[in-house]
Amino acid sequence: MRIALVAHDNKKQEMINFSMAYEPILRKHELFATGTTGQKIMDATGLDIHRFQSGPLGGDQQIGALIAQNKMDLVLFFRDPLTSQAHEPDISALIRLCDVYQIPVATNVASGELFIRAMERGDFNWRNIIKEREGNQS
Ligand SMILES: O=C(CO)COP(=O)(O)O
């Protein structure tokens, strides 16, 4: 599965803790992240992550572009609901695209934990069926 990891500044420590706790699961997947989030996770774990631009510089939109191409299976986006973000339109656009394309998106660590365990259990294997079907059409 392809997983996007994103965290606002006040949530980065939670994301680091999450990534350390679930490293054995995460390392079995293809990981993507916005710039600073990805760097911090890589510094704290042995995970290999494809890093996009920092969120305010377009990273959320780059992840959104992959969603629109059906190339992202799960988004873990630990948002800070108490701080306004200069790039709020990009954040809304990313979450909107998750809804457009039916991509599971967890916006806090509690739902992130449920999703990662569900993925490990095979609950997201339907994504492979969709990707195979789309691959056969192109
Ligand atoms: O702002 C972000 C998501 O909206 C996260 O970006 P960074 O990981 O670069 O801090």
TrEMBL record:
List the InterPro entries.
Methylgl_synth, Methylglyoxal_synth_AS, MGS-like_dom, MGS-like_dom_sf
Q: Name one GO cellular component term.
A: cytosol
- Record-listed substrate binding positions: H8, K12, T34, G35, T36, T37, S54, G55, H87
MGS-like domain boundaries:
1-138
Can you supply a Gene Ontology BP term from the record?
methylglyoxal biosynthetic process
GO MF annotations in UniProt = methylglyoxal synthase activity
Which reaction does this enzyme catalyse, per its entry?
A: dihydroxyacetone phosphate = methylglyoxal + phosphate
Q: Which residues form the active site?
A: D60 (proton donor/acceptor)
Keywords per UniProt:
Lyase
The record's EC number reads 4.2.3.3
Q: Which Pfam families match?
A: MGS
Q: What does this protein do?
A: Catalyzes the formation of methylglyoxal from dihydroxyacetone phosphate.
Query: Which family would the database say this protein is a member of?
Result: Belongs to the methylglyoxal synthase family.
Q: What is this protein called?
A: Methylglyoxal synthase
Organism classification = Bacteria, Bacillati, Bacillota, Bacilli, Bacillales
